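Case study 2.
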Amino acid sequence: MGIRDVLFGRKKLSEPKSDRLFALTTAAVTLETEVGLTPAGVAAVTFKPLSTGDFARVGNDIDQLVKAAARSAGGDVERKTDTYGYEWVIVTDDQLEDQVAAVYAVASEMTAQGFGAQLLAAPFRFNGGTHPTYWIYGFKRGTFWPFIPTGNGQTRDNAAELELKAKLEKELPVEQDLTRWLGLFDAPI
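Prediction:
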């Protein structure tokens, strides 16, 4: 950051840390054997869109890239916009490895095109608990955190989330600052 950036209040947003995503595939065995969670076959990338022509072009490139990757692996991809205006690239595939690869492809393409700072999170849905369980990857810090909505409005099962943290933090880069555990209520996955 230069002196002009300091004077004018500008700072460069950090680039995403996408490489730690693959830790989820190695933790899948522990998730299934020790916690009883199995992949639900759906994941997503959520990002804040820009209204520039370049971003629209990159969005189309990402759609083509991910759809081709999903077809080759036997999966499906769709794109949605939520009520807050955030974009979701939703990957449906039975194999967790293919979901992680598709999410990584989206993040890599956006970063390569200069839009990595727009990436927010990548939730992966799991079944097996009382409620759907999500492991959410935050691109800014390169860490995961669990999210278990109870289905009762905007409430979550904090005790179960902390238990998951304790069981998986040796295998996953788990976010240690609990105030950063963003809840993705009403996620379209």
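The mean pLDDT is 85.
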